[in-house]
Write a structure and sequence with these properties.
The complex is a heterodimer of chains A (161) and B (710). Helices cover 34% and strands 16% of the residues of chain A. Chain A is built from 5 helices and 5 strands; from the N terminus they run ββαβββαααα. Chain A has 2 domains: 76 residues, Ubiquitin-like (UB roll) (Roll), CATH 3.10.20; 70 residues, [2Fe-2S]-binding domain (DNA polymerase, domain 1, Orthogonal Bundle), CATH 1.10.150. Chain A has a 5-stranded mixed sheet with strand order 2-1-5-3-4, sandwiched between helices. By secondary structure, chain A is an alpha+beta fold. Chain B is of the alpha+beta class and 710 residues long. Helix content of chain B is 28%, strand content 26%. In chain B, the strands form 6 sheets. Chain B has a 7-stranded mixed sheet, with helices on both faces. A 6-stranded mixed sheet of chain B has the order 7-15-14-13-8-26. In chain B, strand 13 and strand 14 form a beta hairpin. In chain B, helix 8 packs parallel to helix 9 and helix 15 crosses helix 16. Chain B is globular and about 75 Å long. The chains are: A alpha+beta (161), B alpha+beta (710). The interface between A and B is large, with 55 and 55 residues.
Chain lengths: 161, 710
């Protein structure tokens, strides 16, 4: 096996020095090397979206990216959504609209929705459903996730950037 | 009622939303080893040799085990059903001299790092002489025959105006929780206690089994549940991997962690459904069923696992459903094939039997030229016959429907649909060339399996409350519901309560979470404990502790109906669900928001099973669905807005809360309703005989219709 590579991952505005083999996925590095276990692995082949994080603002599947590829980027994970203990509007809306049951897919949906709403605050309901259909949830039947994201979109537009 | 009946926001959510959940993969212990399972790549074969030498010398590898290393450990036991003679079909921790399905554990590798464990596992050389694989259950060896019945069938056939027969089948599905299975076992030599974290569903039962299998005193084994990423019947049963992790922690004297990947999950965790039903009904001139006979074939896969023959048993017991049916006989053949072993999946035996029975009711309607809803009305058990002795047993209990007004629920559903107008509208669209249709399936569920649950509640000096239960969480919201029930008695806000579950070290008795039992059984135990505590509160000062029990020898029986409106796209043979309504009576809803969540989520899974999900195998027994690209879960695209109608017309007389379980009514009749809707869209009664209705199957149906016209 090739020698580990040492570099810095910038996650939620904080620098993490990691030393990992080239083949280590970003998801594994976030979870095992940065201790950020809020990012979950549901399939490890890019279908379920539970591992979605934002890299330079864009939602990506961290199971399909090598950690070393994320060098020099700004990564955001579910742990960075809330401000101190104050929930992000998406988190608050998921709570109020019962947008989660087991909660395993939730971080992926939150980050997917955060990335989309920040880029397209006026996204139509139909487009939003299209985007959210890229992640899997086995508990909720999606209806409350859609409701929550729509409600959060309204809240997020009210907030200063 | 101040707290019960309110849509209280979940106590569970904040931690999960912040990304602070502790699922199995999030656990770690200093010095932990990682276990990787080496699995059979052939469906049936004789093991000639397993060469582990190269794997053993891989950097980081600490041990490699095969059957010889665990030969003293008994096979995985049977938790449910009292059918004897199943012992020969139990699964050993690692394959002994034969392999019987692709994915069967043959060896395990323990290494310092998960990547090294996986590398070393690939170096284990398996020499297997391939044998022919048994694929069809129809000519497969029979592990067990389940028989149930009552009444005089001969007389029923003698009096029949007509006999309606059909054969239908439900494909192989499974629960697919988003979190794969996993565990972390740790042995503490100082206390002598073995702890396995990552438990779910039935921790107390599994604790006893692990202790028995590894020859430890029961109180020296602790099973502890963290957050659980979905259950659905699959997760939390005792699997070979759980016991291997525990055995390894004992023998290797280091904590051992195992997390399966999705590829493994889809071929090693329990599958379910996969039943063929042959029904034969004696029907009078009015469409009343005088008698019903069922021959059921269950494709059990390679071994009998923890559920025994539960799924077949439940299919036989629940097939008669909401109808009177004076004479009945069912025979379920549990057959062994070279496929992944089967267990339960949400509404086990009912998703299948409801599909079969409701297809039959539609066939009766078509035969006699009656409206399908009218045939159901004529057969419903009337409310004045409640409680209704069904005439069969299941899960060690007599099936006695405790309460229900089936006709009323159907009328409420039809009113919600505006049935007559909807039928007219769909007929007009069909006349305009669209292939659209409506289907309705009725069902009876079961919930609240006993025999007993215990709860211990403590009022702390600071005014907070701890509720210790023997239940388990699989993500369904048990903490919130238990807190609401306790809050109602104590008049203390649910937010002041902390609910403990899934911990064998905190309570000596626990039955866990299955069979939609928690709200009924654990909920009533919490109520009893809270009442006992309240009595003490008048006399003494906190901290105060009280205990409560709830016992029940009978299950209770929620019921409902699903309605689907579908559109068939002739060009692609795809089915789009335009509208889906779940009507369900659960006696009383403790938290309506959570009940709706359960019903909606169940409906989504039911739609998946009706249209998308299936494990297929090729002729050599190779599984064709081992990734999410092949086993298709419904996405936000496929699931329409689910309309939910929760009624409380028939509270259960068997418990003081009047509650019945809400976990499985959302999925039960989804296949039945969608099949009927597709028939209606094609204007071909009885066209759908098999789920899922994939584009390939639908194309075949429409093709055969065109040929018939030619």
């Amino acid at each position: 096996m090739s020698q580990p590579i040492a570099f810095t991952l910038r996650v939620n505005g904080k620098d993490y020095s990691v030393r990992v083999p080239a083949r280590r996925s970003l998801a594994d590095a976030l979870r095992d090397d940065c201790g950020l276990t809020g990012t979950h692995l549901g399939c490890e082949h890019g279908v379920c979206g539970a591992c979605t994080v934002l890299v330079d603002g864009k939602p990506i599947r961290s199971c399909l990216v090598f950690a070393v590829q994320a060098k020099g980027t700004e990564i955001r994970t579910v742990e960075g959504l809330a401000q101190e203990e104050k929930l992000h509007p998406l988190q608050q809306a998921f709570w109020e609209h019962h947008g989660l049951q087991c909660g395993f897919c939730t971080p992926g949906f939150l980050m997917l929705a955060a990335g989309v709403l920040e880029a397209e605050p006026n996204i139509s309901d139909e487009e939003l459903k299209h985007v959210l259909s890229s992640n899997l949830c086995r508990c909720t039947g999606y209806q409350n996730i859609l409701k929550a994201v729509r409600a959060a979109a309204v809240e997020m537009k009210k907030r200063p950037k | 009622m101040k707290y019960i009946g309110r849509s209280v926001k979940r106590l569970e959510d904040r931690t999960l939303l912040l990304g602070r959940g502790q699922y199995a993969a999030d656990l770690a212990a200093p010095g932990q080893l990682y276990m990787r399972v080496v699995r059979s790549q052939v469906a049936h074969g004789k093991i000639l040799a397993i060469d582990t030498s190269e794997a053993r010398s891989h950097p980081g590898a600490q041990a490699v085990w095969t059957y010889e290393d665990v030969r003293h450990v008994p096979p995985i036991g049977i938790r449910l059903t009292r059918v004897g003679g199943l012992e020969p079909y139990q699964q050993t921790l690692l394959a002994k001299d034969q392999v019987r399905y692709v994915g069967e554990p043959m060896a395990v590798v323990f290494a310092d790092d998960p990547y090294a464990a996986e590398d070393a596992a690939e170096l284990v050389r398996l020499e297997v002489e391939e044998l022919p694989a048994q694929i069809s259950p129809l000519d497969a060896p029979e592990a067990a025959l389940v028989e149930k019945g009552y009444g005089d069938l001969t007389a029923a056939y003698a009096a029949a105006h007509t006999v309606v027969e059909l054969e239908v089948a439900v494909g192989r599905h499974t629960g697919v929780p988003l979190e794969t299975r996993g565990a972390l076992a740790d042995f503490d030599p100082a206390s002598g206690i073995l702890t396995m974290k990552g438990a779910a569903k039935v921790p107390h039962y599994n604790r006893d089994q692990v202790a028995r299998m590894l020859d430890l005193p029961g109180d020296m084994v602790h099973l502890i549940q963290g957050h659980v990423g979905g259950g659905f019947g699959v997760r939390g049963e005792l699997y070979p991997e759980d016991v291997l992790v525990c055995q390894a922690a004992l023998r290797l004297k280091r904590p051992v962690k195992w997390i399966e990947d999705r590829f493994e999950h889809l071929m090693a965790a329990n599958h379910s459904r996969d039943q063929i039903h042959r029904l034969r009904a004696a029907v009078d001139a009015n469409g009343f069923l005088l008698g019903l006979e069922a021959e059921i074939f269950t494709d059990q896969g390679a071994y009998i696992r923890t559920h025994g023959v539960t799924v077949s048993d439940l299919a036989c017991a629940m097939l008669p459903g909401p109808y009177v049916i004076p004479a009945y006989r069912a025979r379920a053949h549990v057959r062994l094939t070279n496929k992944t072993p089967c267990g339960t999946y949400r509404a086990p035996g009912r998703y299948e039997s409801t599909f079969a029975r409701e297809r039959l009711m539609d066939a009766v309607a078509a035969r006699l030229g009656l409206d399908p809803m009218e045939v159901r009305r004529r057969n419903f058990i009337p409310p004045e016959r409640m409680p209704f002795e069904r005439g069969v047993d299941t899960l060690g209990t007599r099936v006695v429907y405790d309460s229900g007004n089936y006709a009323l629920l159907l009328e409420k559903l039809l009113a919600k649909l505006d049935y007559a107008a909807l039928k007219r509208d769909l007929a007009a669209r069909r006349a305009g060339g669209e292939k659209v249709g409506l289907g309705i399936g009725f069902f009876v569920e079961k919930s609240g399996l006993g025999p007993a649950d215990k709860a211990v509640i403590t009022l702390e000096a600071d005014g907070s409350v701890e509720i210790v239960t023997g239940a388990a969480s699989i993500g369904q919201g048990i903490e919130t519901v238990m807190a609401q029930i306790c809050a109602e008695v104590l008049d203390i806000a649910p937010e002041r309560m902390r609910v403990v579950h899934g911990r064998t070290d905190r309570i000596d008795h626990g039955m866990g979470a299955f069979a939609s039992r928690v709200t009924v059984m654990t909920g009533c135990a919490v109520k009893a404990a809270a009442e006992a505590l309240k009595e003490k509160m008048g006399r003494e000062k906190p901290p105060l502790t009280a205990e409560g029990w709830f016992r029940s020898t009978h299950m209770n029986y929620p019921y409902g109906a699903h309605a689907a409106v579908v559109r068939v796209d002739e060009a692609t043979s795809a089915v789009k669900v335009e509208r889906f309504v779940v009507a369900c009576d659960i006696g009383r809803a403790v938290n309506p928001m959570l009940v709706e969540g359960q019903l909606t989520g169940g409906a989504a899974q039911g739609i998946g099973g009706a249209l998308l999900e299936e494990f297929l195998y090729d002729a050599s027994g190779q599984p064709l669905a081992t990734t999410f690209a092949d086993y298709l879960l419904p996405t936000a695209h496929e699931v329409p807005q689910i309309e939910v109608l929760v009624t409380e017309d028939a509270p259960s007389p068997l418990n003081a809360l009047g509650v019945k379980g809400a976990g499985e009514g959302g999925i039960n009749a989804a296949g039945a309703a969608i099949a009927a809707a597709v028939d209606d869209a094609l204007a071909r009664p009885g066209a759908v005989t098999r789920l899922p209705i994939t584009p390939r199957r639908l194309h075949r149906i429409t093709l055969s219709a065109k040929e018939a016209i030619r």
